[in-house]
Amino acid sequence: MSAGAPILRVAGVSKRFRGLLAVNDVSFAVPEGSICSLIGPNGAGKSSLFNLVTGYLPLTAGAVWFRDRRIDGQGTTAISRMGIARAFQIAKPFPELSVRDNVRIGALFGREGPRDVASVVRDALQLTGLSDHAGQQANSLTVGFLRRLELARAVATRPALLLADEPCAGLNPTETEEIMGILRQIRANGVTVLLVEHDMRAVMGISETIFVLDAGAKIAEGPPDAIARDPRVVAAYLGAPAEG
Amino acid sequence: MSLILQTILDGLVLGGLYSLAAVGFSLIFGVMNVVNLTHGVIVLIGAYLAYAFWHGLGVDPLLAIPLVMAALFAFGYVYQRGLIQLAVDRSSLLASMLVTFGVALMLRNVLVLVFSPDFKSVTPSYAFTVFFLGPVTIDLVRLSALGASLVLLCVLAGVLRWTAVGRVIRATAQQDLAARLCGVDVRHVYGITFGVSAAFAGASGAIIGIVVPFSPPDEALWTINAFVVVTLGGVGSPSGALLGGLLLGLISTLTSQLIGPQFPNAMMFLILVVMLLLRPSGLLGNAFSGSR
Amino acid sequence: MLAEGIRAHRWWIVAAAVGFAVLLTAPAYLTPFQVRVGQLFLFSAGLGVAWTILGGFAGYWSFGHTAFIGLGAFVAGAFELHVPLGSPVATMVAGTALGSLACAAVSAVIAYPILRLRGIYFAIAMLGVSQVFAELTNNVDAFKGTMGINMPNAVPASMEPQTFFYYVFVAATALTLGVAFWVKVSRLGYGLVSIREDEDTARMLGVPTERYKIWAFVLSATLTGLLGIVYAHALGYITTGSVYRTDFSLNMIVYALLGGIGTIVGPVLGSALMVWLTQVVLGRLLDVHMFITGALLVAIVLLAPHGLVGFARKLLRRGAGGGA
User: Fold this and answer.
1) What is the tens place of the pLDDT at every residue in C10-24?
2) What pLDDT does B292 receive?
3) Residue C292 covered by a domain
4) What are phi and psi of C13, to 5 degrees?
5) CB contact B109 to C (< 8 Å)
6) Rounded distance, CA C181 to CA C9, Å?
7) Parallel, antiparallel, or unpaired for β A209-214 and A35-39?
8) Is residue A128 in a domain?
9) Which residue of chain C is at minimal alpha-carbon distance from A111?
């Protein structure tokens, strides 16, 4: 279950927005080759953490390690080129470009630069089931397909680690299952996946390790069945006081 | 010493005009996020209307201000409802800016055809009355220009603060969706805002006419002046326009006195660019939050 | 990438080759007036395409590109005036190279700070830059902006001036089109388009946005400068007012908008239409040029926001039947 050395290590990371401590001394490690999830109630700091890891926001304290390189303080572009891709919660396609060109831009600028672009694009479209929509303009896609495009474009950058920010938000159960299938396939292709997701059933079904955030701090970590039984997690979600 | 005092006084007079000329631009930008490149030409239309009243009917430019304002209010309202709103609905803000630019070119061409491309000026009877205040001199024209500018700015501030229309305009500026949900007819408010903006631009034009000569190509300069004033002072409020305008006035008279008479424009653009780069939110921190 | 791009656009390339073949032979059977109109068309098309590299591809709309027309023209002019080389043609070539280099250098220096601005702020800041350049040209003695500079005459004795400059314009415009095409099909082009569509996401995907924007700005400025220098030579005598023209800045945008923003063929079609309208159809109505340009601008934005190319695409799509 637990694979090799950590590909991503978040060590004592904090982020303060003016007075608010959005992320409070959070540490965790994502093993290479796994699918891990980050869960927590709204406002727990999950998206902030993604923003910190990808260099979108500067840290207030702590460090982020990618394999054995310290990456906090590096620019977004540099971090992306090391092999960390991100799929946004609110899909941000390049609206006036075709699906294929969206994915092609990922392939042209990802980790390995413009190599085998055509086949990378083809594979990414196939993986996400977008091959038949390749010529369509991105802003004409439905929400479900936009999420797939988001994943396809991220995969095309040939990342080692994919940060997927709520890829199933607003989708129906069938679509959610399809997205989970795509994520499993992405992992099978050798990409580590860190997922933020609200759909507990999906998270429990796919994750090897789950990290739980509440009010900016990590309150639990472990395999799905242990997390499901953890009283602090239940309390955080149900708002009841924690026992012991 | 008296030279510096004189320069500062001239700068303040000019600054009052810049403030009044820019306040409408600032209002439109603050309320609907539209950069109105027609603004400068509306200022000039005000000047030409006052010119026409003076030469045609012998009406004093300062007394003609209410007439000019009424005419341009109507123009502004119709212009917004008939054209600007269409452009905003159909395409991006950048494109709507191009529409205002296109209209500016058309109006400028009309001004050239009607009034010729030459410089015009308005010289009322009191144009040559001069006061001495200790070491500095001030003529009645400039004094009344400054006075009229300040009075009109206060009037606008009062309207925005204390009247029902003003409250609705301010509410729409802050949250147009919320205003819409509260039953405000946002389009009507936009029309009124444009009308108010045009009216005050016209008033400033009428005053400008008695202080400096003007010609149709000046419109670009008045638009850019307004942009600089807003960059310096902040968006959407008469007080911001006043601050920015006075600063700009001082900058331009001091530059021309201390560096050379040919440099005020270069200095103004330099300040514009530098301000955008260093303090995109204006000196008071309420302008241009979206500039980068 | 280039090979792939050439294959994908082979029909456009054929069309461009045919177009240039026609342009090259045209002076043989055109009247001098028509040759001058041809010059203006080539100049306009070149400007529109040069502007497009930054404005159309990267989405950074400059409202002050005439800054580089003026800068290039005055640097070339001042050099040719003060440092005449052996032959007039050599002087002109050296001046042109130096003026273009000056545009490249100056644009590279201002690129980083000014490209941090977005949208209308960038547009207006560029307008400011062009005004500052114009004022400085007026006030720096070497440039003699207000008195003007007589550009040394490099026209060979065997040729009519308008024909000579026509061919120089053909070369400059062909170069501009070539560079723009190379940018479009290269990684740079895709990167620029992604910046236009969503700069933050582009960065997230690994696009070196800062570097690419600077490249686009410098290429666009240099080509604009080159065209401006040719124009200055064709004019023969330049003042600040004749090369720092706000209507140049505006027209570049109008050509691109009219034809179709973000495409290369767009500004070419747009300038052809505009030059034909203003020079041939309305040649005698100089009084209302500005009015018509303005009205056209309003009409395009309201009626055909994607220009002639967008309009044609829509027709094609409708013609193809049932396409989404």
Assistant:
1) 888 889 989 998 988
2) 33
3) no
4) -65, -40
5) yes
6) 10
7) parallel
8) no
9) C206
Q: For position C8, which CATH number holds? A: 1.10.3470
ipTM for the whole complex:
0.81
Residue C151 lies in a domain: yes
Nearest by CB to A110, from C203, C206, C209: name it: C206
Q: Report the CATH number at residue A222.
A: 3.40.50.300
pLDDT per position as a tens digit, A198-208: 888 888 888 89
Q: Is there a domain that residue A213 lies in?
A: yes
- Check if the beta carbon of residue A80 is closer than 8 Å to that of residue A54: yes
Q: From CA C53, how far away is CA C61, in angstroms rounded? A: 10
Which chain C residue's Cα is nearest to B220? C246
pLDDT of residue B91: 64
Do B241 and B23 meet the contact criterion of CB atoms below 8 Å apart?
Answer: yes
Provide the residue type at B4 as one letter.
I
Q: Do the Cβ atoms of A24 and A216 come closer than 8 Å?
A: yes
Please indicate whether, in this complex, the C-beta atoms of C127 and B91 are within 8 angstroms of each other: no
Of B90, B106, B227, the CB nearest to C294: B106
In a domain, C258, yes or no: no
Picking from C1, C197, C205, the nearest residue to A157 by CB comes out as C205
Q: Which domain, by its residues, includes A57?
A: 1-81+196-244
* List of chain C residues whose C-beta atoms are within 8 Å of the C-beta of residue B277: 113-114, 116-117, 125
To the nearest whole Å, the CA of A57 is away from the closest chain C CA by 12
* pLDDT value of position B164: 84
Cβ of C296 and B102 within 8 Å? yes
Give the pair of three-digit tokens for residue A229: 């039984």
User: Could you tell me if residue A18 is inside a domain?
Assistant: yes
Question: Between chains, do C205 and A153 touch, taking CB under 8 Å as contact?
Answer: yes
The answer on pLDDT for B288 being more than 80 is no
Q: C131 — contact with chain B (CB < 8 Å)?
A: yes
Alpha helix stretches (DSSP H) within A54-111: 76-82, 99-109
Asked if the model's pLDDT at residue A239 lies above 70, the reply is no
pLDDT beyond 50 at A2: no
Count of structural domains within chain A: 1
Is B90 a residue whose pLDDT tops 80?
no
CA distance B168 to A54: 42
**Residue A65: exposed, middle, or buried by beta-carbon count in 10 A (0-12, 13-18, 19+)?**
middle
Partner-chain contact C128 B220, CB within 8 Å: no
The more confident residue out of B280 and B129 is B129
Determine, for residues C206 and A94 on separate chains, whether the beta-carbon distance falls below 8 Å: no
Please check the confidence at residue A240 and state whether its pLDDT lies above 60.
no
* B78 in contact with chain C, both atoms CB, cutoff 8 A: no
Residue C127 lies in a domain: yes
Sequence-separated (6 or more) residues with CB below 8 Å from residue C124: B35, B224, B227, B272, B276, C63
Please tell me the distance from the alpha carbon of residue C74 to that of residue C239, in angstroms, as a whole number.
9
**Distance (Å, rounded) from C-alpha C228 to C-alpha C134?**
14
Contact between chain C and chain B (3 or more Cβ pairs less than 8 Å apart):
yes
Interface test with A, best of C185, C197, C211 (most A CBs within 10 A): C197
* Least-confidence region, from C170-174, C262-266, C316-320: C316-320
Domain layout of chain B by residue ranges: 2-278
Rounded to whole angstroms, how far apart are CA atoms C283 and B153?
46
Residues 6+ apart with CB under 8 A from B60: B54, B124
* A contact chains, 3+ CB pairs < 8 A: C
What 3-state DSSP class applies to B92? coil
List chain B residues with CB under 8 Å of C123.
Answer: 94, 97
